[in-house]
Design goal:
280 residues; alpha/beta; Metallo-beta-lactamase, Chain A; 6-stranded mixed sheet; binds zinc ion
Length: 280
């Protein structure tokens, strides 16, 4: 197994949305807040090469956003996914599996591209994996999730029968197992990649950036913040006990960390790049 980082650019969103109920005087010393009151978020995907499979977990915003939306998100490096794959000497056509933790546009927008006016799967030979309940939420969104789901990101994949449900692979595949969480969005997946003795948890929007290690720091994008706190409480205890490596999708400063529990607080322990722990 080889694991690589695939960068898909950055976006910036209102700091208050990400910090939720965390008091404002605690923001700046935990994460850089920009002059316009936003925080910059990475779109850090993971690529796994396993035997003859090439597996991509999430793929950023893609190239289909309107100019207005790009401006409101302060989208930077929108072609980073293409560049990252080129740097790895891979093509879109070599990807065999695309795992989507959930279908919010900043995680799955790169799933499709516009080709001669038609929206098509960007990875023509890939199966795309999602949870059934997440796909149901996507088809029938609650009001607060309406703006996070963009039909063109996934419907063309579904219509070409390339969408697969993780429930049909209950044990996971290629040393990747899946956990489901419902606080941020119903049926959101957290893939856990087994690499030798290590477990690498792609925590996605369960813990979007390091400040979210504080149990009460729950983003206002979450559907059910109370449930998120319950889910994080259980998951973080497990992550400490099992010495998981967490992979942050959105944190620009911290790509990965292990955890320690001190005085009831979950803290970063040895943060940095994944490569310091694993030889790929
Ligand atoms: Zn999300």
């Amino acid at each position: 197994m080889k694991i690589s980082t695939v960068n898909c650019g950055t976006i910036s969103v209102d700091a208050g949305m990400m910090f939720g109920n965390l008091p404002e005087n605690e923001w700046q010393n935990r994460y850089p807040v920009q002059a316009n009151g936003t925080v910059k978020l990475a779109l850090r995907s993971m690529l796994i090469e396993y035997d003859d499979r090439v597996i991509l977990i999430n793929n950023g915003c893609g190239l289909k956003l309107s100019e207005e939306m790009k401006a409101s998100l302060y989208l930077e490096n929108e072609f980073a996914l293409e560049q990252s794959l080129r740097d790895l000497k891979l093509a879109f056509s070599t990807v065999t599996d695309v795992i989507l933790t959930h279908l919010h546009f900043d995680h799955c927008g790169g799933s499709t591209v516009i080709n001669k006016g038609r929206v098509e799967p960007a990875f023509p030979h890939a199966r795309y994996w999602v949870s059934r309940s997440q796909f149901e939420s996507f088809l029938h969104p609650e009001d607060n999730e309406l703006e996070s789901f963009i039909m063109d990101d996934i419907l063309p994949v579904y219509e070409q029968s390339k969408l697969c449900f993780i429930e049909d692979e209950p044990n996971g595949f290629c040393d990747i197992s899946f956990r489901r969480f419902n606080g941020h969005s119903t049926g959101m997946l957290v893939p856990i990649v087994r690499y030798g003795k290590e477990n690498i948890a792609f925590v996605s929007d369960l813990i979007p950036f390091a400040p979210s290690l504080i149990l009460d720091c729950v983003s206002r994008y979450d559907n059910n913040p109370v449930l998120t706190i319950q889910e994080k409480t259980l998951f973080l205890a497990e992550a400490v006990q099992q010495n998981y490596i967490l992979w942050f999708e959105h944190d620009t400063e911290v790509a990965c960390c292990r955890l320690k529990l001190e005085h009831g607080l979950y803290l970063k322990h040895n943060s940095g790049s994944l490569m310091q722990w694993i030889e790929t």
